[in-house]
Amino acid sequence: MIKSKKKESESFEHIKIKDFFYDNLPLDNNVKTIKLEYSIGNRIADVYCMLENGKEVVIEIQHSMILSKDLIQRTKEYNEHNCYVLWVFNGSSFERLPKIEDKIRILGFERSSHLLYRGRVYYINMTKTGVHSPVYPLSFANYYEQKMSDYGFRYYKKSKTKKSVVPSEIPSLKLKLFKNKGYKLAGFHDDNIRKTCTETLGQFLIDYENVEERVKKVKKIKSHQKKLFIIIAMFGRQFGLYLLFDVLRRLKIVGKEDFHYMKVTYLYLQL
């Protein structure tokens, strides 16, 4: 028999995060019922709510480490009781803040959550002094490590263990219910940051044609590099170096040989 979570084992931060959703979810959703510590099968949901349309949602709050297999198992069990599941993690527990960070070792549960929630992991930053950041999505992009070949030249290779973290925002706590990978899930109406970056750069490249002739007048920088310089200057703070590089590669604007110039430019602009 699966053991339920015990209320007495909860941390102060865990309790406060539950209270945050209990107080704030009804402000942005048509909620018929909302309860804390609600029994569903052999589990006790941190936050349970039934929407006016009859849909049931469970919010699982994680303040400590959880194995990926346990995250999937809990999601599956709640789904068996026709509940949509939203996982939210405490950023202060895992050193995940709403800012761009590079060379981050992605955790197992983050990989699973990133896959389930279509390219984002939901966090809230709660400490004993209160909420430092309300709910925010973090996305993981490829990170490129500098290597040295046997022949003495430098190149960059995609890391197998490290990622770049890029934050985005949610417009409100209004829930969005969807199915993905065979699971019933709940999220918010936030845009996938990679999709946003792709659309933003796509529009920029169209608009760039209108100013390209003027940019060509700038001396000492090749035309292609001028374009990259402007992209990094305009969007580096929003999307970070590694997500920009990934998207530009997918758009076939840059190759591996461009990464070093982009990195030097990014550091030069101190983004």
What does this structure look like?
There is one protein chain. The chain is elongated and about 65 Å long. It has two domains: 7-190, Trna Endonuclease, Chain: A, domain 1, CATH 3.40.1350; 196-268. Residues 1-8 have low confidence and may be disordered. The strands form two sheets. It has an eight-stranded mixed β-sheet with strand order 1-2-3-4-6-7-8-5, with helices on both faces. It has helices at 12-28, 68-80, 91-94, 108-116, 193-215, 223-239, 241-250, 259-268; strands at 31-40, 43-51, 56-62, 83-90, 101-105, 121-127, 130-148, 154-167, 175-180, 183-188. Helix 5 (193-215) packs across helix 7 (241-250) and helix 6 crosses helix 7 (241-250). The chain is of the alpha+beta class. Helix content is 38%, strand content 34%.
Distance between the termini: 52 Å
Structural class, from helix and strand content?
alpha+beta
Low-confidence stretches: 1-8
CATH first level of the largest domain: which class?
Answer: Alpha Beta
What is the oligomer described by this structure? Answer: single chain
How many DSSP H or I helices?
8
Largest sheet: 8 strands, mixed
Q: Strand fraction band?
A: 25-35%
Q: How is this structure best summarized?
A:
With 271 residues, this protein is an alpha+beta fold.
